[in-house]
Design goal:
Blueprint lengths: L6 H6 L3 E5 L4 H13 L4 E5 L5 H11 L4 E5 L4 H9 L4 E3 L5 H10 L3 E2 L1 E2 L2 H9 L4 E4 L7 H8 L7 E4 L5 H8 L7 E3 L5 H6 L2 H12 L4
Parallel strand pairs: 1-2, 1-9, 2-3, 3-4, 4-5, 6-7, 7-8
The chain binds 3-phosphoglyceric acid.
InterPro entries: Aldlse_KDPG_KHG, Aldolase_TIM, KDPG/KHG_AS_1, KDPG/KHG_AS_2
Enzyme class: lyase
Keywords: Carbohydrate metabolism, Lyase, Schiff base
């Protein structure tokens, strides 16, 4: 894996980017190892819990082959803290020029979230053409992506939000979809129970989703 990733490389590594919520630093390393064993190495750790940065740091330091990403990046400060913790890519739920510029300045590939045509145009103005469609299923799902493929023919999307193993195939078969994102690979109960075998199995199944 190259030192400096591109957003496209992040999207093309596997059919699914897992959206991960970690409440306990002790879970971070075994969870990352399970995802890796299942064939998923791009890991989006959301900045939604007080432990998130420490979890990123633990994975970045201890799990060879894992590529730590930061999710829920909502400010330039979030982006800077994520890089310090070892993040090599970022995902945001929306787009602001400030977050876009901060990630550029940090050399941090960003998948900015969009759900309207105006937001796509703003992200493109900021130089971003690989975007997260969020919340994908709530905001129009495959029909919206098909509609966008005309005017935004040069954009690749990672639909996230409401994606499941059942609907992932339809999304992944669209030419403007490079991958999907979802939290189903790391269920909260599997994490709480330390059921790493289940997480590994879910990851392996996710890698087999056709694109
Ligand atoms: C999120 O921000 O929580 C992600 O979009 C994941 O959504 P999901 O839980 O519906 O996969």
């Amino acid at each position: 894996m190259a030192v400096n990733l591109t957003s496209l490389q992040v999207m093309q590594d596997a059919p699914v980017i897992p959206v991960i919520v970690l409440n306990d630093v002790a879970h971070a390393v075994p969870m990352a190892r399970a995802l890796l064993a299942g064939g998923i190495r791009m890991l989006e750790i959301t900045l939604r819990t007080p432990q998130a940065l420490a979890c990123m740091e633990a994975i970045a330091n201890e799990v060879e082959g894992a590529v730590v990403g930061a999710g829920t990046v909502r400010s330039p400060q979030d982006a800077a803290a994520a890089v310090k913790a070892g993040a090599r890519f970022a995902v945001s739920p929306g787009y602001t020029p400030a977050v876009g510029q901060a990630c550029k300045d940090l050399g941090l590939p960003l998948l900015p979230g969009v759900s309207t045509g105006s937001e796509i145009m703003m992200a493109q103005e900021g130089g971003y053409t690989e975007l997260k469609f969020f919340p994908a299923m709530q905001a129009g799902g495959p029909a919206m992506l098909k509609a966008w493929s005309g005017p935004f023919f040069d954009v690749k999307f990672c639909p996230t939000g409401g994606v499941t193993p059942q609907n992932a195939h339809e999304l992944l078969s669209l030419p403007n979809v490079a991958c999907v994102g979802g939290s189903w690979l790391v269920p909260a109960d599997a994490m709480a129970q330390g059921d790493w075998a289940r997480i590994e199995k879910l990851a392996r199944e996710a890698t087999q989703l056709a694109r």
